[in-house]
Amino acid sequence: MIFLLCCDQDAATDIRLQFDQAFANVLWHDSGQNLTKNNFKMQEVKHKSVGAIIRSGDGKYFLIERNTQPFGFAGIAGHIDPGEIPEQALKREIKEESGFNLLEYKLVVQKFIAWNWCNKGVTGHDWYLFECRISGKITPAPREVKSSGWYSLAEIQNLRLEPVWEYWFKELGIL
Length: 175
Ligand SMILES: [Zn+2]
Known about the structure:
Elements: E1 29-30, E2 48-54, E3 61-66, E4 72-74, E5 76-79, H1 86-98, E6 101-113, E7 125-135, E8 145-151, H2 153-157, H3 163-171
Parallel strand pairs: 2-7
Antiparallel strand pairs: 1-6, 2-5, 3-4, 3-8, 6-7
């Protein structure tokens, strides 16, 4: 018997991504490129998330102040919806939460974070964290985003970050 807990991702995708766990040899991909996905596997249903590290030319990072739990300042992020692959979720979340267009991206971390809960009651999330290059102007979605902007490292150190984003900034050696 397969028991599914809070499976709003009932068609979660299992994608085959070639990447290095470290940062070496990761290529930039054009966001218009075609991507492949594997067949859905019921026994692997779990929440998957994408996150976007967006850095400006002058070394500032784009953060949002989340209007929903878990609160705090965070990079753009969200669940991978049923039928989506991570890159599609990344493009969608960036548009929804900032108004930016995704130009280029590269996967920098793929990792399961067991303690990273969400407001849908799931404790752990399988994360796909991307570095992103974007274009366009900020037009945040008011429901999800309390405020947003570009923050220097000194400013970030004084912000109350959402725990998983504090973790990512440390994991990536940014903080
Ligand atoms: Zn979740």
